[in-house]
Amino acid sequence: GSYTTSSESSKLLFRQLFEKESSTYTYLLADVAHPEKPALLVDPVDKTVERDLSLIKELGLKLIYAMNTHVHADHVTGTGLIKSRVPGVKSIISKSSNSKADLLVEHGDKIYFGNLFLEVRATPGHTLGCVTYVTGDGSNQPQPRMAFTGDALLIRGCGRTDFQILSLPKDTFLYPAHDYKGFTVSTVGEEMLYNPRLSKDEETFKHIMENLNLPYPKMIDVAVPANMVCGLQDLTGKSAETMSS
Amino acid sequence: GSYTTSSESSKLLFRQLFEKESSTYTYLLADVAHPEKPALLVDPVDKTVERDLSLIKELGLKLIYAMNTHVHADHVTGTGLIKSRVPGVKSIISKSSNSKADLLVEHGDKIYFGNLFLEVRATPGHTLGCVTYVTGDGSNQPQPRMAFTGDALLIRGCGRTDFQILSLPKDTFLYPAHDYKGFTVSTVGEEMLYNPRLSKDEETFKHIMENLNLPYPKMIDVAVPANMVCGLQDLTGKSAETMSS
Ligand SMILES: [Fe+2]
Ligand SMILES: [Fe+2]
Fold first, then answer.
1. For chain B, does the N or the C end have fewer beta carbons within 10 angstroms?
2. Do B193 and A16 touch (CB under 8 A)?
3. Counting Cβ atoms within 10 Å, is residue A70 exposed (0-12), middle (13-18) or buried (19+)?
């Protein structure tokens, strides 16, 4: 409605977006009850920045944050490109990632967009600096809660998930950074039952992992240095190698 | 909760599933407030039947319907395979598709699963028999409503959408059978503003369509005959050519 400007009201607009080549999900969240419709993107991909920005424009949103869950090894983040295209957008990554961004966040931090917010939870494993962003707890926050797990949990897959994700309510929706089988979402309850990492004992799991014979990630040599500076090195001409880690 | 067996209560479980090769979305819906957790699949793909059935099993659902929005030209429906794997499942397609199925539905029909239901709306254009399945109107039905448009509306794309979709409330979620750009969902209000078919006048649109130079659909020669018998010809040895159309 049109009378939604009180400090308590909020309304989540949510979109899940897919980048086919790296099977990456980007998430758009906005508080459309707020007069400015502030929005953020989680894990944008360089190749789909145009699509994402044009959607944001069409929906009348004001992008304020471009966030990463971790330093990706399989695609180049869209953060740098977005910052160059939309003045005022702030990039966010975890302090423990040892990467460059406008805002470096830590476990327990809250990231507000309008009257909605995301909590930062440290979920190291896949990389040391991996964080999971979880929608807030409260009557004006989305129910069930939603967790953007990055690579810390893949659906039925082998992220090194810890209790930071599993301690969330069972109906919490889990949205990973990737899916290779066409799943879009899971829940805490479901993964506790069916994720091989969580439903198998340590020894069985180690055996599974050692026999996966995972290929060397396609884009790791390009993507990691680029993502350490949030995709900015191509734009500034500064080499990623000059960044301290 | 455990006291949800009154005839009025309902709770939608909803999953969007993706088949990468044909960029097809399959939708799983179930009423998990109903003791039997009756479920249906919209537009299942033969290649992802195993994934879909194992998800249904894990979630403790009882699959009762495998439905198609139309005779697909780009992939083989999973309906036949599902029927052979899960006894009791009924296939559904529109009467006007001139295809074979256990239940042939028409505009205005309601398809119940538990206390939830889908309405059938005739949305011919892409094929004569195209229908859109829309969640019911009512206090115990999902809000906003959800429409499974098949190929009658693609996000920002050129389905020959008519007022059967556009007359739905503006916040109705639109879920297409395909997306090639990584979009997962749109709304009636959004498509009215930004779908080229709807936001451009007839002449401009005709010009766009005539200049698209669309490739001949990859799988049309295999998929159409197969889908006319809902994927059953491979299983029964009956040739699709013997079916009247
Ligand atoms: Fe990743
Ligand atoms: Fe299709």
1. N
2. no
3. buried
Q: What is the pLDDT of residue B43?
A: 98
**Band of residue B221 on the pLDDT scale cut at 50, 70, 90:** low
Q: At B185, which CATH number?
A: 3.60.15.10
Read off the pLDDT of residues A80-128 as tens digits, 9 standing for 90 and up: 999 999 999 999 999 999 999 999 999 999 999 999 999 999 998 878 8
Report the alpha-carbon distance of residue A6 to residue A113 in Å, rounded.
15
Distance CA B2, CA A29 (A): 32
Amino acid at A101: A
CA–CA min distance A184, chain B (Å): 6
Domain count, chain B: 1
Closest CA to B114 of B1, B28, B7: B7
Owning domain of residue A135: 12-213
Nearest chain B CA: its distance from A203 CA (Å): 24
Contact yes or no for A188/A174 (Cβ under 8 A): yes
Assess if residue B118 is contained within a domain: yes
Q: Is B170 in the A-facing interface, judged by CB distances under 8 Å?
A: no
CB A82 within 8 A of CB A41: yes
pLDDT of residue A8: 75
ipTM: 0.84
Inter-CA distances, B167 with A112, B91, B136, B164, Å:
36, 28, 14, 6
What sign does the CA torsion over B163, B216, B52, A131 have?
negative
Chain B partners of A192 at a C-beta cutoff of 8 Å?
A: none
Tokens 């979009």 belong to B183
Chain B residue with minimal CA distance to A19?
B182
Domain-located, residue A218:
no
pLDDT digit string, tens, across residues B23-53: 999 999 999 999 999 999 999 999 999 999 9
Q: A193-197, A218-222, B60-64, B110-114: lowest mean pLDDT where?
A: A218-222
Contact A51 B19 (CB under 8 A): no
Do B182 and A19 count as a contact with CB atoms less than 8 A apart?
Answer: yes
Which residue of A15, A19, A184 is in closest CB contact with B18?
A184
Flag whether A237 is in a domain. Answer: no
